[in-house]
């Protein structure tokens, strides 16, 4: 017989699986693009049921949920700003609907942080992404998950786009790496999973995901090596990385040569031209922006100006920092940067004296998240696992969260014990 804890894990694992982007092209009538699936009535109904189930878990665990939210109120403030932006958006219904979806996305992240320890969070997420990987392999074998394009063969598996597969598998690779295993059998399973995730990232032909996960591992390794050997203060590390970047630029290694060596155009597949046009649009509404997700796909009349300038029709900015500024202005950007600063400070405290490899996870994820948003969008993004995990990681890395969470878990385990055992 299922107890409450198992049911909650199933709900949250299923939600993580769907928010990763897996199965969207099969659930929705729109099929192809993320935006089409996001606006599809069937997908909306399915997501609504999932979010209601997550809300039920949050209500059952209301004490720890409220306490967790109160420890990081800036996340709630950013969410409220996104929902309120429907008041000044050109398409208020569209903005409000996506704001509600964002609330569900954030709530999922909050519940994960409030209900589970960091190791349990990673284990739950691992199973969701292992399932997505297994289904992707199956559909690729059946010949329905591979696309041919000018860039060569690329896999998308059960995802809408190759970049979604690449991002999900890069995240899965990172999660699997920071889960320790004790027995030989589990270590073999872990090694096989890591190999599968790495293969799918490469087969997706998503260079953004490949570079992001590689640089993340490099930065975390550098942090451990420099801090442990030389005991440099953490604030000194980031200026050192900046100086290293400047020296790299001084050697004459250009963006064009780097992207060219990876088989990509020097303008990052048209993104630099797009970013220039977006910057001009941001200056038109610099304070509060165009409303949450209220610029692209006809939500704003100014979107046509960008499309005419670049000669194609994007559905997002391909840069998370530009996207949040476009949506919520510099007010939203500064609020997000404050949240990110809080998360990085907590993550660095975790990482300075790690008791296990899992203690490095908050730093690794936030580095991954920060880099990934240089070319993709997951900052304050509705129905997005990566944004949910950003919320979870920042809240779970709070050093005061551990004793409260431990007492909550103990209470949940006590409830699950049959009455006959307590007699």
Note down, in words, how this protein is organized:
There is one protein chain. The protein has 423 residues and is mainly alpha-helical. It has one domain. It contains 20 helices and two strands. Strands 1-2 form a two-stranded antiparallel ribbon. Strand 1 and strand 2 form a beta hairpin. 42% of the residues are buried.
State the shape. globular
Fraction in beta strands: under 5%
Major β-sheet strand ordering:
1-2
What's the number of domains? 1
What ranges have pLDDT less than 50 throughout 5 or more consecutive residues? 251-267, 415-423
- End-to-end distance: 20 Å
Report the major sheet.
2 strands, antiparallel
Radius of gyration, Cα only, in angstroms?
21 Å
Taken in chain order, the helices and strands follow as: HHHHHHHHEEHHHHHHHHHHHH
The share of residues in helices is over 70%
E-strand count? 2
Structural class: mainly alpha
What is the residue-mean pLDDT, rounded to a whole number?
Answer: 84
Q: Determine the number of helices (DSSP H or I, runs of at least 4 residues).
A: 20
Which keywords apply here?
single chain; 423 residues; mainly alpha; two-stranded antiparallel sheet; 20 helices; disordered C terminus
Question: Can you lay out the helices and strands and say which pair or pack?
Answer:
Blueprint: H1 4-19, H2 24-27, H3 34-38, H4 41-60, H5 62-71, H6 73-84, H7 92-115, H8 118-141, E1 146-149, E2 152-155, H9 162-177, H10 184-203, H11 207-230, H12 234-250, H13 255-261, H14 271-284, H15 303-310, H16 320-352, H17 361-372, H18 385-396, H19 401-416, H20 419-422
Antiparallel strand pairs: 1-2
Helix pairs in contact: 1-4, 1-8, 4-7, 5-7, 6-7, 6-16, 7-18, 8-9, 9-10, 9-11, 11-17, 14-15, 14-16, 16-17, 17-18
């Amino acid at each position: 017989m299922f107890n409450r804890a198992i049911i909650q894990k199933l709900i949250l694992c299923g939600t993580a699986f769907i928010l990763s982007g897996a199965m969207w092209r099969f659930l929705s009538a729109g099929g192809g693009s993320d935006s089409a699936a996001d606006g599809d009535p069937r997908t909306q109904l399915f997501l609504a049921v999932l979010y209601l189930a997550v809300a039920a878990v949050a209500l059952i665990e209301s004490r720890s949920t409220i306490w967790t939210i109160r420890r990081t109120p800036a996340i709630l403030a950013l969410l409220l700003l996104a929902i309120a932006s429907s008041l000044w958006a050109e398409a208020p219904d569209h903005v409000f609907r996506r704001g509600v979806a964002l609330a569900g996305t954030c709530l999922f992240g909050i519940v994960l942080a409030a209900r589970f320890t960091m190791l349990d969070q990673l284990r739950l997420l691992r199973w969701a992404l292992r399932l997505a990987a297994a289904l992707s392999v199956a559909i690729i074998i059946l010949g329905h998950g591979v696309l041919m394009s000018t860039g060569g063969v690329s896999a998308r598996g059960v995802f809408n786009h190759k970049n979604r597969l690449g991002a999900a598998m890069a995240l899965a690779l990172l999660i699997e790496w920071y889960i320790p295993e004790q027995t030989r059998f589990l270590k073999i399973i872990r090694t096989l999973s890591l190999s599968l995730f790495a293969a799918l990232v490469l087969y997706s032909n998503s260079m953004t995901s490949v570079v992001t996960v590689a640089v993340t591992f490099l930065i975390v390794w550098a942090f451990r090596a420099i801090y442990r050997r030389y005991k440099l203060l953490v604030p000194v590390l980031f200026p050192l990385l900046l100086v290293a970047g400047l020296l790299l630029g001084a050697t004459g290694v250009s963006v064009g040569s780097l992207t060219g060596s990876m088989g990509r155009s020097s303008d990052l597949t048209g993104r630099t031209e797009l970013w220039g046009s977006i910057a001009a649009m941001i200056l038109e509404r610099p304070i509060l922006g165009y409303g949450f997700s209220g610029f692209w796909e006809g939500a704003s009349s100014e979107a046509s100006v960008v499309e005419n300038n670049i000669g194609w029709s994007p559905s997002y900015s391909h840069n998370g920092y530009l996207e949040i500024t476009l949506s919520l202005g510099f007010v939203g950007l500064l609020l997000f940067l404050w949240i990110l600063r809080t998360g990085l400070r907590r993550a660095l405290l975790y990482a300075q004296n790690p008791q296990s490899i899992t203690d490095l996870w908050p730093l690794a994820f936030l580095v991954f998240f920060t880099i990934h948003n240089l070319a993709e969008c997951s900052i304050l993004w509705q129905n997005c696992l990566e944004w949910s995990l950003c919320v979870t990681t920042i809240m779970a890395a709070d050093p005061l969260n551990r004793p409260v969470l431990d007492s909550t878990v103990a209470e949940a385990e006590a409830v699950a014990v049959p009455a006959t055992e307590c007699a």
